[in-house]
Design a protein that fits this description.
Layout lengths: L4 E4 L13 H7 L6 H9 L3 H6 L5 H8 L4 H12 L6 H8 L4 E6 L3 H10 L6 E6 H4 L6 H11 L6 E5 L2 H9 L3 E5 L9 E3 L2 H9 L1
Length: 205
């Protein structure tokens, strides 16, 4: 079946930072005496996971960490510590009229919305499936099923571009064609690209 849709991960694909720098960013904004408290919030309470699952809002998340101005720190972090891959917009300009572009991202709802608005990406996506909105995360099979349901696409119509092998494995089990965006040099036996130029060449075949 002809491919009509490309599902894109955000972190490690559209953004260069695959893991992000938010945890070190947080430590950098507090005194060392606060580190044990912050570590507990990240590790034991899984505060970041709760935020990206939509269990708490961005403001609640950042306030619990101790930020007095949560909106400022969301914006400051995204603007100054995350980098748009310079190849994405040229790729999107060429191919978003040929394929439906769908964002499939693990992220805090408000952060994802700000990122796509800040970089002018919303016009490229027909749908955005974000963990904080749908309350489940990759590699949970459910989020892929939600993406297929929302878009009305069959698995065999879709490419899925991600920098995490474990996320690609689940997509492939569903019949989606997986492609590793090789940001982190993971071992993978399937299709691999290193940048958007290589991705363009692959989908043109």
């Amino acid at each position: 079946m002809k491919k009509t849709t490309i599902l894109f991960d955000m972190y490690g694909v559209i953004l260069k930072e695959s893991k992000g720098f938010f945890i070190p960013y947080t430590y950098g904004n507090f005194a060392q005496s606060e580190y044990e408290r912050i570590t507990g919030l990240f590790r034991e309470e899984q505060l970041f996971t709760k935020a990206s699952n939509g269990d708490i809002t961005s403001n609640e998340f950042l306030t619990r960490l101790g930020f007095a101005d949560p909106h400022f720190h969301m914006v400051n972090y995204i603007d100054n510590f995350l980098t748009l891959d310079e190849g994405f917009i040229p790729f999107a300009e060429k191919y978003s009229s040929v394929y439906d572009f769908v964002l499939l991202s693990n992220d805090v709802s408000e952060w994802s919305a700000y990122i796509t608005q800040h970089h002018g990406l919303d016009k490229y996506f027909t749908h955005k499936i974000v963990s904080g909105d749908v309350k489940c995360r990759k590699p949970d099979r459910k989020i892929y099923e939600i993406a297929l349901s929302v878009t009305g696409k069959r698995p065999e119509e879709c490419f899925f571009i991600d920098n995490s092998v474990k996320n690609l494995v689940v997509a492939e089990e569903l019949g989606i064609k997986p492609i590793l965006f090789n940001r982190d040099q993971e071992e993978y036996g399937g299709l691999i690209v290193n940048d958007f130029t290589e991705l363009a060449a692959l989908i043109e075949k």
